[in-house]
Design brief:
Strand content of chain B: 15-25%
Strand content of chain A: under 5%
Strand order of the largest sheet of chain A: 1-2
Order of helices and strands of chain A: HHHEEHHHHHHHHHHH
Shape of chain A: globular
Structural class of chain B: alpha/beta
Oligomer: heterodimer
Shape of chain B: globular
Largest sheet of chain B: 6 strands, mixed
Number of strands of chain B: 10
Distance between the termini of chain A: 12 Å
Number of strands of chain A: 2
Strand order of the largest sheet of chain B: 6-7-8-3-9-10
Distance between the termini of chain B: 31 Å
Structural class of chain A: mainly alpha
Helix content of chain B: 25-40%
Largest sheet of chain A: 2 strands, antiparallel
């Protein structure tokens, strides 16, 4: 039981929790305590040193007559942003109540019409924007995976296909999101003239997602092709002797065997996608973290820098969490790890 | 042929056996045992080496196997014996000549010729029964699921893995993995089993056990087996015929040794017999002299396909 829990924690990358659990079960208490101090104590010490240095330096630097925000100011800004979110939640609840009341009072007006007559106009808070960014990067990532995985399988199965696709990979992979954006913006803008600005498929949203797709596609494509090409020759011989046919071979032998590599590619893809997204949102004005940073930069309040620092930290934390999730998924599909869990 | 012809001449293939049948044999009237089973006719195989150019691995191989026979190919590493087995399996095609199974040229793998691979080759993400079911599902697509499952379970029981069916390959021993490979091949309902050094990676005790079990299956299920091995003892103990290959490149069949131990075979009795020692010496002498020939870089230019019969009476 203990071993199983430890194994799951290791797979999920939550190694910090392993020593306390082992200590609770009374296993090698002294050794585990030492390990825990090392694993958790050292990073915490480093963070403390960083915060202290930041605090000291921030107090000394003055820009345009204002002090550089230190850790305390940034924490305050984060608290304020969360307060704004709570206020807006309350506002929205209020709006919903009055909207329902208005509907009741005017039964001859349909709901959609009523929405148009009294729309909810409050600007999105930072948490809403964060949510929007996650949605956008996820959309781009899913589209990228849907294109890259099948294409990668074909490239891995046939070297002729790989020779044909390889030049495109080499040329388009290094292209910056900032170069893609105008092209995507023009194409999407021209093809989606009749879509309302605040619908789910808002233009800016689609533009950002497509730019994420174009930049994150390549890692998955290359890794999938690699994983498929490296499938053990013996397994392919087994597939031939068992007469599995093309589809059987792909789905029963090649894919399961290449899955860890495919997930490795997807992990790299989502990392690239998240980085690209912020830039794309800044330029396309998609209501996400990127737009928030841009808007803060344009406005000149005293708290601007503190707000942007909060954004930078959340971008980092979200990127880290996404990476962790992908690592955990990758470990779950790797034969060794998965089978030990069962 | 006189009445006093040695018994061995009946067992060795003659020119007449190798010649194609004059009449159309595929009609249903032709009895099963009259039909040619496996025939390897003038097979040569070459590969294109990136620096050395064309390399002929096998030249002019002629061999035929009767139904129910257990034939073993033995030779030094790199003599092309695995290539020969791959061609019988249909994983590889000869450069010239032909390999025919029941008078049809082999072009691709088929369930009638099941392979037991050298390193078990089980899919690590599938359980023992999952691996066997992959074969059963592919061969018996039209049978109901229950029947397919019963079939897989039956063969796993036969190889003694009834209690380990739901384990993963990494949770069982090397011998059990190889048994699973055996069950997977048997479950396809093959007419010819192809063993590609299946016991090579196992420890001595497990190897003996699996050899005995394979012999039991060969005897009880009336299997025909085409085996490739490194081990002289294994070849003699298990087969009806030991086919010795010359060293490659341009490997040919050097000598065919008839093994006349009765079946079912008893391990201790056979290993202790003088006859076994004699067969063993024959093999080792051949293999040793061939490796010397190879070292002097003088490969036999003429294919020596003449089978050599060994007298029944064994010298001490």
């Amino acid at each position: 039981m203990l071993n199983k829990i430890v194994l799951y924690l290791n797979i999920l990358g939550l190694t910090w929790f392993v020593p306390p659990i082992k200590m609770l079960c009374g296993q090698d208490v002294a050794y585990e305590a030492k390990r825990f101090l090392r694993m958790v104590g050292l990073p915490l010490l480093a963070v403390a040193i960083f915060l202290f240095t930041w605090h000291a330096v921030a107090g000394a630097v003055v820009i345009k007559g204002a002090k550089l925000p230190g850790p305390i100011e940034v924490t305050h800004a984060a608290g304020k942003m969360y307060g704004d979110y709570q206020k807006s939640q309350a506002n929205y609840a209020e709006y919903q109540v009055s909207f329902a009341q208005a509907l009741k009072d005017n039964p001859e007006i349909k709901e959609a019409e009523m929405r148009e007559m009294m729309p909810y106009t409050a600007s999105p808070t930072y948490l809403d924007q964060m949510w929007m960014s996650l949605k956008t990067v996820f959309t781009g990532f899913v589209i990228a995976s849907l294109i890259a995985i099948p294409l990668g399988i074909i490239c891995g199965m046939s070297s002729a296909a790989f020779e044909m696709i390889n030049p495109f990979i080499q040329i388009f992979r290094p292209v910056s999101p900032l170069a893609w954006l105008p092209i995507v913006a023009i194409i999407v803008g021209a093809t989606m003239t009749d879509v309302a600005a605040n619908s789910f498929w808002a233009k800016s949203y689609l533009i950002s997602a497509v730019v994420v797709t174009l930049c994150s596609l390549w890692a998955t494509l290359i890794n999938t092709a690699n994983g498929v090409a490296q499938v053990d020759k013996d397994y392919l011989n087994v597939a031939k002797v068992l007469n599995l046919g093309w589809f059987g071979t792909v789905f029963k032998v090649v894919l399961p065997s290449a899955l860890p590599q495919i997930f490795n590619g997807m992990r790299l893809s989502i990392g690239v996608g998240w980085m690209v997204l912020i830039a794309a949102e800044m330029l396309s004005q998609n209501p996400g973290i990127g737009k928030f940073v841009w808007d803060m930069y344009q406005s000149s309040s005293d708290d601007t820098l503190a707000y942007i620092m909060v954004a930078v930290l959340t971008i980092g934390v979200i990127g880290f969490v996404l990476d962790r999730i992908m690592i955990a998924l990758q470990r779950l599909v790797s034969p060794g790890a998965m089978l030990n869990v069962r | 042929m006189s009445y006093f012809a040695p018994l061995t001449s009946l067992l060795t293939p003659t020119k007449a056996d190798l010649a194609p049948l004059p009449t159309a044999p595929t009609t249903s009237a032709a009895p099963e045992n009259r039909m040619k089973f496996l025939e390897i006719i003038n097979v040569s195989k070459h590969f294109n080496h990136p620096t050395k150019g064309k390399i002929e691995v096998l030249s002019n191989i002629n061999l035929s196997i009767k139904k129910g026979e257990f034939i073993t190919i033995i030779g030094h590493s790199g003599c092309g014996k695995s290539t020969l087995l791959n061609m019988v399996a249909g994983l590889d095609l000869p450069s010239s000549g032909s390999v025919c199974f029941k008078e049809k040229e082999i072009m691709k793998p088929a369930p009638e010729r099941a392979v037991v691979f050298q390193n078990h080759s089980l899919l690590p993400w599938r359980t023992v029964i999952g691996n066997v079911m992959l074969a059963v599902n592919s061969v018996f697509k039209d049978k109901p699921k229950k029947e397919r499952l019963e079939r897989a379970e039956h063969w796993l029981t036969v190889v003694g893995l009834k209690d380990h069916m739901h384990k993963y390959p990494h949770e069982i021993s090397g011998g059990q993995r190889q048994r699973t490979g055996l069950a997977r091949a048997l479950a396809m309902g093959p007419e010819l089993m192809l063993f590609d050094e299946p016991f090579g990676a196992l420890d001595e005790l497990t190897r003996s056990q699996l050899q005995d079990e394979s012999l039991r299956l060969h005897f009880e299920e009336h299997l025909s087996v085409f085996m490739v091995t490194h081990s002289v003892d294994e070849a003699i103990y298990m087969s009806d015929k030991v086919v010795m290959m010359n060293n490659g490149p341009n490997a040919t069949i050097g000598k065919v040794l008839e093994i006349e131990f009765p079946r079912p075979r008893e391990r201790l009795k056979i290993f202790e017999s003088a006859q076994f020692a004699h067969y063993r010496n024959e093999c080792i002498r051949f293999l040793f002299s061939r490796s010397k020939v190879a070292a002097e870089a003088a490969p036999a230019s003429q294919p020596q396909t003449q089978p050599v019969a060994v007298p029944g009476a064994a010298p001490a």
